[in-house]
Fold:
Amino acid sequence: MSSSSIGRRYVFTSFGESHGRCIGAVVDGCPAGLELDENDIQKMLDLRKPGQSIVTTQRKEEDKVEILSGVFRGYTTGAPIAMIIWNTDQRSRDYENLTLKPRPGHSDYPAYIKYKGFNDYRGGGRFSGRLTATFVMAGAIARKLLSQTLRIETHSYTCQIGKVKMKQQTSAKMKNAIYNNEVRCPDSRAAQKMKAVILAARKNGDSVGGIVESVTANLPVGIGEPIFGSLESDLSKALFSIPAVKGVEFGSGFHGSTLHGSQNNDEYIVKNGKIVTRTNNAGGILGGLSTGMPLVLRVAFKPASSISKKQQTVDIKTKKSVSLIVQGRHDPCVVPRAPPVVDSLVSVVLADHSLRAGLISPVIR
Ligand SMILES: Cc1cc2nc3c(=O)[nH]c(=O)nc-3n(C[C@H](O)[C@H](O)[C@H](O)COP(=O)(O)O)c2cc1C
Structure:
């Protein structure tokens, strides 16, 4: 596993395992002079942590972050910022029967073959959704950096669970309503229906998937490094690193492929002296570069694979077919915990690109 870091100028490294001693993040490249304390990171971690409601796993983790380096007298120093969270509520026995009987839909089988059984399988090990707490540690810092230097703001929210979709609302309204309910959907009516879908799946010993939408405002024009460092390429790479993500689309996305150019093109107009587009089917990116319009993307999450319904698998050693009922405390739907994770990775990529573009200086005054 030699791919635990992402970014060129804002370099984030994630470490730890779900049931190991701790999980953590190292951020190298954050400018000096950013006012930062643990609370800045904790606020965002609290939005992701498990055990908060009946729509998530009942694993109870405080997820208290400790900053170990890179901050002095309340400001970043420019040195690497190392952060950890100690794991406290592991129940590793739930995973004993999964080593040789891989869960359908989880990483157990390819991981066992690749690492020849040496990987820490407890709680999903490196493949666990728990590692997304490390994404949030790095993301919280990136978010604050972007907000303070360039006024860039990212807001992500649940827009679909199963087949239940939210109604589009104005962005100002949405921003304040995201965390008003357990599913993190700004449309409160849709949120109730979404919750019912998750609880029905849980009652059935099953799980359900959904979509997180993310909107970023105030991006300057021209961020991104075509062609392989295009904004879409780097955002997609980061977002596909979230466990259970199976799709990422920008703007009109897959739907856009059903339209004509005359319907999908965003016409340029001048508004308040600024060149903008009338519509935003491009989702704020053209040619891999930001257009100055809001960055709009959607991330599709599959239904969590660990379900307590009886399933068929194969014993890796005997190659005999066996049935499996997955034990343990699992998310019936991972989506309600994902919006802060999406916010975080979008922020990490945008911070990296803003630094690469020279839009943020190495010392903030
Ligand atoms: C916040 C979060 C929580 C997750 N919780 C669970 C869970 O409780 N049970 C489960 O089977 N998968 C869970 N997952 C997804 C698995 O980690 C993921 O499906 C697995 O590693 C296989 O990777 P893949 O789905 O990306 O192919 C979670 C993912 C996220 C983002």
